[in-house]
């Protein structure tokens, strides 16, 4: 009698992923640590920090302008954001931005 190995491999892979998932989630830095790292980055690189702030302000202003021009588009974006937040809450994962690469030191 010959056994098919694919179900066994599938079970092994799922087992490894279930064990590794929580371990990988622990590597996400806390928001307080992120804030401290960001402040340190801004102290060391004030010009880059200002450029990033200006870009973020520009993006925020563009988003607000789009929302004023098309409220339906804005509501769709808000719903999508809420769905994403609920997903992360249910699955115990942080938003994508928490796992984003840190600024160069």
Number of H/I helices: 4
In helices, the fraction of residues equals over 70%
Determine the oligomeric state from the structure: single chain
The value of Rg in angstroms is: 21 Å
* Number of separate strands: 0
Write the layout of secondary structure elements.
Blueprint: H1 6-25, H2 31-44, H3 46-69, H4 71-91
Helix pairs in contact: 2-3, 3-4
Briefly, what is this?
The protein has helices at residues 6-25, 31-44, 46-69, 71-91. It has 105 residues and is mainly alpha-helical. The protein has a domain at 33-90.
Protein model, in words:
The protein has 105 residues and is mainly α. The chain has a domain at 33-90. It has helices at residues 6-25, 31-44, 46-69, 71-91. The radius of gyration is 21 Å and the shape is flat. The model has no long low-confidence stretch (mean pLDDT 79).
Characteristic key phrases:
105 residues; mainly alpha; 0% strand; flat
């Amino acid at each position: 009698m010959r056994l098919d190995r694919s179900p066994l491999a599938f079970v092994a892979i799922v087992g490894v992923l279930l064990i590794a998932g929580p371990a990988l989630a622990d590597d996400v830095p806390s928001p307080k640590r992120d804030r401290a790292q960001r402040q340190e980055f801004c102290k060391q690189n004030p010009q880059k920090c200002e450029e990033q702030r200006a870009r973020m302000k520009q993006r925020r202003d563009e988003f607000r302008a789009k929302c004023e021009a098309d409220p339906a588009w804005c509501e769709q974006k808000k719903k999508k954001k809420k769905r994403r937040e609920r997903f992360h809450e249910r699955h115990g994962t942080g938003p994508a931005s928490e796992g984003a690469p840190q600024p160069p030191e």
